[in-house]
Amino acid sequence: MNSGETVKRHLEELWQKHLPLMLSRLDVLTRAIDALSHGAIHEDLKTRATEEAHKLAGSLGTFGLESASDSALRIERLLANRSTAVDQTAELAGNLRIVRESIHSR
Amino acid sequence: MLKHILLIDDEDDIREVATISLEIVAGWRVSSAKSGAAGLELAKQTHPDAILLDVMMPKQDGPDTLRALRGDEATARIPVIFLTAKVEVSEHERLRTIGAAGILAKPFNPMTLANQVSELLGW
């Protein structure tokens, strides 16, 4: 087995190991964007969701999910904007869908 | 010569992927720490050839950790490469001004990470 195959095998093991963490981060984003769509998000949840989006942006691409990583970064930027408005929830939801589908289909 | 890398990142998945990448692809020895404070201690004890340092960490972030490394004679000259998911040019310029040997983006490609480190450090 060459080094590329060995790295891929280890990446698969690490993905399975950390999948619950990815899903918990996804859950925070889902709750935050759902709250935003209802026009009532607590600042603590928004801050936490911004942090979790940042972490997903940094890690998903490392596991080969580049478009999901880009979407997580987009979510992070939208949430970090203090004036994130209800009219941005469609864009947030679209990016969230990409992240969710990428994680579940990997 | 076998290189020794110290990896400081609070996220377990990133630490573990980077460790596998550098050990298997490059054959380097990798130590890791999950906080700036723990990384500082490990750097003093083990004198790594280079440090990969996450920017955003709770309590002591990457820039603060770099300043502490530079302020200690035992670690002052160890090259430090930042790992960051921030892509803004202004952020990268800020990190360079505080003494980073280079900046690598997260997410990184596990197959090419070692090459990127080698290129930045002239290895």
How would you describe this structure to a colleague?
The complex is a heterodimer of chains A (106) and B (123). Chain A has one domain: Four Helix Bundle (Hemerythrin (Met), subunit A). Chain A is 80% helix and 0% strand. With 106 residues, chain A is an all-alpha fold. Chain A is elongated, with a radius of gyration of 15 Å. In chain A, helix 1 runs antiparallel to helix 2 and helix 1 runs antiparallel to helix 4. By secondary structure, chain B is an alpha/beta fold. Chain B has a single domain, classed as Rossmann fold (3-Layer(aba) Sandwich), CATH 3.40.50. Chain B contains five helices and five strands. Chain B has a five-stranded parallel beta sheet, with helices on both faces. In chain B, strand 1, helix 1 and strand 2 form a beta-alpha-beta unit. The interface between A and B is medium-sized, with 22 and 19 residues.
Question: Summarize this, please?
Answer:
The complex is a heterodimer of chains A (106) and B (123). Chain A is an all-alpha fold.
Task: Walk me through the topology.
The complex is a heterodimer of chains A (106) and B (123).
Chain A: H1 3-37, H2 43-60, H3 66-80, H4 89-105
Chain B: E1 4-8, H1 12-26, E2 29-33, H2 36-46, E3 50-54, H3 62-70, E4 80-84, H4 89-97, E5 102-105, H5 113-121
Keywords:
heterodimer, A: 106 residues, mainly alpha, Four Helix Bundle (Hemerythrin (Met), subunit A), 80% helix, B: 123 residues, alpha/beta, Rossmann fold, five-stranded parallel β-sheet, 5 helices
Strand order of the largest sheet of chain B: 2-1-3-4-5
* Helix/strand order of chain A: HHHH
Content-based structural category of chain B: alpha/beta
**How would you sum up the major sheet of chain A?**
none
- Secondary-structure arrangement, i.e. CATH architecture of chain A: Up-down Bundle
What's the rounded overall pLDDT mean of chain A?
A: 92
Order of helices and strands of chain B: EHEHEHEHEH
Percent range for β-strand residues of chain B: 15-25%
Based on the coordinates given, report the CATH architecture of chain B: 3-Layer(aba) Sandwich
Give the domain tally of chain B. Answer: 1
* C-alpha end-to-end distance of chain B: 10 Å
CATH superfamily of chain B: Response regulator
Number of helices of chain A: 4
CATH structural fold name of chain A: Four Helix Bundle (Hemerythrin (Met), subunit A)
Number of strands of chain B: 5
Distance between the termini of chain A: 23 Å
Uncertain segments of chain A of ≥5 residues (pLDDT<50)? none
